[in-house]
Amino acid sequence: MMKKIIAIFLCFVLVFSCSVLLCGCGDKKNESEFSTPFGEEYYNTIGAGRGSFFFELIDETGFNQRFQINTDCLYLLEALRENNMVLTSTGETITAIAGIVADDSNGRVWVLYDEGKKVEGSYEEIKITAERKYSFISESK
Fold it and tell me: Could you report the per-residue pLDDT of 10-23, keeping only the tens digit for each?
């Protein structure tokens, strides 16, 4: 009987030791956790594909929407069109994106920023860089 109690006790000690070893302790953040360039704030995930990038929309009122786009496309506008995000564009001018029309009566258009730097020239040529943050901000022409 005593051998049985010792065996059960040793099993509990073994299980407890393994659980402490595997779980760890403290508030350590998992290094492989996925994070966005927007921090812990909410964002919409759309599309399907092996690659992904992030973009945000900021309209003239300051309203902000954030997205993660999953795609196999190589170019930014191609990926946005594939997911019905860009409705009208002329290479360097985007008038409607994600269903939001820039107020053209006030001379506003969507302007593209890549990691906070304004993109000059044609948006058609912008290659997607994985995990990069692109922003479209409603600005005056």
Answer: 666 666 665 555 44
Backbone angles phi, psi at 100, to 5 degrees: -105, 120
Residues 137 and 130 sit within 8 Å (Cβ to Cβ): no
pLDDT at 37 over 90: no
Q: Give the C-alpha separation, 114 to 83, whole Å.
A: 19
Q: Is the pLDDT of residue 121 over 90?
A: no
Residue 124: which of 81, 75, 52 has the closest Cα?
Answer: 75
Distance, CA of 56 to CA of 44 (rounded, Å): 10
Structural tokens at position 117 = 């730097």
Q: Any residues with CB less than 8 A from the CB of 4 and at least 6 apart, and which?
A: none
For residue 12, how many other CB atoms are within 10 A of its CB? 9
Read off the DSSP letter of residue 32: T
How large is the average pLDDT for residues 39-46?
A: 69
